[in-house]
Design brief:
The chain is an alpha+beta fold. It has helices at about 10-25, 65-75, 90-95, 105-115, 115-125, 140-150, 175-190, 250-265, 295-305, 310-315, 395-410, 420-425, 430-435, 440-445, and strands at about 5, 25-35, 45-50, 75-80, 100, 155-160, 170, 195-200, 205-215, 220-235, 235-240, 270-280, 285-290, 335-340, 340-345, 350, 355, 355-360, 365-370, 375-380, 385-395, 410-415. The chain has 3 domains: about 5-105, Rossmann fold, CATH 3.40.50.20; about 130-200, ATP-grasp fold, A domain (Dna Ligase, domain 1); about 205-445, ATP-grasp fold, B domain (D-amino Acid Aminotransferase, Chain A, domain 1, 2-Layer Sandwich). The chain is built from 14 helices and 22 strands. The strands form 6 sheets. Strands 13-12-9-10-11-14-21-19 form an 8-stranded antiparallel β-sheet, with helices on both faces.
Length: about 450
């Protein structure tokens, strides 16, 4: 096991990793920008090192500064969390070159699954269902038109090297395809340093279902079942739950098994999420693979009892997975609401500022992953998420009732948050029935 781990991240995921390190008897070193110098979780680390000013490019995604901090602290490994450097194969390679273990997949596995075009090729070979579309990156406009005419409109243009809606354009005819192809490529180049794009069939009313997987360095891979992440806005998830509601068990099991097969085929170690879109007939199509721990990992932890963050550390240290697939069972239902410092009534405008009231909920089956305390100031420089409220119950109806109760108890002020929106959704008839598609929330808020 490692002696000391550097956490190359901030906020609630940094705190989550500190806690995992504590329970494993490993020292935790945190890096921080000047915007986070007063963050309460830094006091829980064994050491905290300032790596620069607030802009992420000068601190949290500045690789030379991260490596310098790791060498100063004499760490054995770096945990990247999610976001920032977590899916950068070049960073994983630099860690390897510096004899520092990267807690995540190898650079080779990350490159294979992190690039969407290469990921599709690997998935096809592993017999994982994929969308009809271009075999690789689109070389020119005429090729794009030919592919679209073969698979039929609507189609979607996607960036090969990234996600989050950047470099993504839906096209309903040839004219919009020709117009958007160059725009999508330019957006992808600006966001990810890679302008390569590809084309897939677009599902109008899809659900977003993802499968949590774990792999180790001994060739083993398992799945921890699925999560439904369909309640989202502009490709950003707001509510996640597990297991997915109203999904046929045989189809779900087949998809979960295919996801684990893909992770094994890529010789992947660590936590990974294979994301799918599901159509109205419950046909699954692979969307992408997230080669890191996900924001919504606690939902899966609650229904399986597996500590995903601890597992990522253990397998990085060379330990075999302590579970076989037959050991993993679904226990009840879990749901997570992302609590963002945003005003839903003003187009989700970010609300940075000082929090003078922070009264978290409690009670049976309630978990709050948050780095916030009373007096904390939300900086304007980073993602607006200030916490994740997770609840667990015997079934979905009880889970929603428990979440509604916990949200009523949760008092944050004076800044605006997404708590009122979540309260509204817990009372929404369509949401309570289950099976809402990825555009449902946007239609609701029009």
């Amino acid at each position: 096991m490692f002696r000391r781990i550097l956490i190359a991240n901030r906020g609630e995921i940094a705190l989550r990793i500190i806690r995992a390190c504590r329970e494993l008897g490993v020292e935790a070193v945190c890096v921080y920008s000047t915007a986070d110098k007063d963050a309460p979780y830094l006091k829980l680390a064994d050491r905290a090192i300032c790596i620069g000013p607030p802009p992420a490019r000068e601190s949290y995604i500045n690789i030379p500064k991260i490596i310098a901090a790791a060498e100063i602290a004499d760490v054995d490994a770096i945990h990247p969390g999610y976001g920032f450097l977590s899916e950068r194969a070049d960073f994983a390679q630099i860690c390897r070159d510096c004899k520092i273990e990267f807690i995540g997949p190898s650079p080779e596995a990350m490159a294979k699954l992190g690039d969407k075009v290469e990921c599709k090729r690997t998935a096809k070979a592993a017999k994982v269902p994929i969308f009809p579309g271009s075999e690789g990156a689109i070389e020119d406009e005429e090729e794009a038109v030919k592919v679209a005419s073969e698979i039929g409109y609507p189609v979607i243009i996607k960036a090969s090297a990234g996600g989050g809606g950047r470099g993504m354009k839906v096209c309903h005819n040839e004219a919009t395809l020709r117009t958007n192809l160059r725009i999508a490529s330019q957006e992808a180049l600006a966001a990810f340093g890679n302008g390569a794009v590809f084309i897939e069939k677009f599902l109008e009313h899809a659900r977003h279902v993802e499968v949590q997987c774990l792999g180790d360095k001994h060739g083993h891979a398992i799945h921890l079942f699925e999560r439904d992440c369909s309640t989202q806005r502009r490709h950003q998830k707001l509510i996640e739950e597990a297991p997915g509601p109203l999904i046929d068990r045989k189809r779900r099991d087949a998809t979960c098994e295919a996801a684990a097969r893909l992770i094994k085929a890529a010789e992947y170690s660590g936590a990974a999420t294979v994301e799918f879109l599901m159509d109205g007939k419950q046909n699954f199509y692979m969307l992408e693979v997230n080669t890191r721990v996900q924001v919504e990992h606690p939902v899966t932890e609650m229904i399986t009892g597996v500590d995903i963050v601890k597992m990522s550390i253990l397998v990085a240290a060379g330990e075999p997975l302590p579970y076989k697939q037959k050991d993993i069972e679904i226990r009840g239902h879990a749901m997570e609401c992302r609590i963002n410092a945003e005003d839903p009534d003003k187009n989700f405008m970010p609300c940075a500022g000082r929090i003078t009231t922070f009264e978290p909920p409690g009670g049976p089956g309630v978990r709050l992953d948050s780095h916030v305390v009373t007096g904390y100031t939300v900086p304007p420089n980073y993602d607006s998420m200030i916490g994740k409220l997770i609840v667990h119950a015997d079934d979905r109806e009880q889970c929603m009732n428990r979440m509604a109760r916990a949200l009523r108890e949760f008092n944050v002020g004076p800044i605006k948050t997404t708590i009122p929106l979540h309260q509204r959704l817990m009372e929404n008839a369509d949401f309570r029935k289950g099976g809402v598609d990825i555009h449902y929330l946007e239609r609701l808020l029009k």
